[in-house]
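ESCALATION

Customer reports they have been waiting on this structure for their group meeting. Please prioritize. Original submission:
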Amino acid sequence: AGGGEFTFVAFHGNAGNITHRSDIYGFLRALPANVLAVEYRGYGRSAGSPDEAILYFRKASAENPGRIDLKRGLAGSLIRGGKNAEGAAVWAEVIAMPGATNEDRVEYSDALIRAGDWQKAAAQLNMVLTQDPRHASALRDMETLQNDASRRTKR
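Update from on-call: job pushed to the front of the queue and completed.
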């Protein structure tokens, strides 16, 4: 124990990893409070395989088809497991669901890039930029990756 009056056990949720919540952990530590942040197996640098997470999220999202958080978890797990085309297909389901965000569309674009579908990725990112220009760096990153890939292909 670090000497805080309270101890928080933090589970980061199923659409990210432990580093995505570091600002919250810092806030809690400043209270002062102890923080134990737990990572799902197969996420971030934790032990385990993304296949375990894929199995979990596949079953959970089939049992709860309206839960966008479970679909996000499945899509992210598929991408981490190297199943890029399948992950992109699940991200496509996510962005069609009520509650989908521009961040979901950026994740979908990333999955499309990993699956090699640059045109669809660019279309998604351009759609996001019309609504939220804060994501301009994602489009620039995609263009850089596409240029790098085409240079490697020409060699």
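Sent to customer with the following note: Strands lie at 6-11, 33-38.
Escalation resolved.
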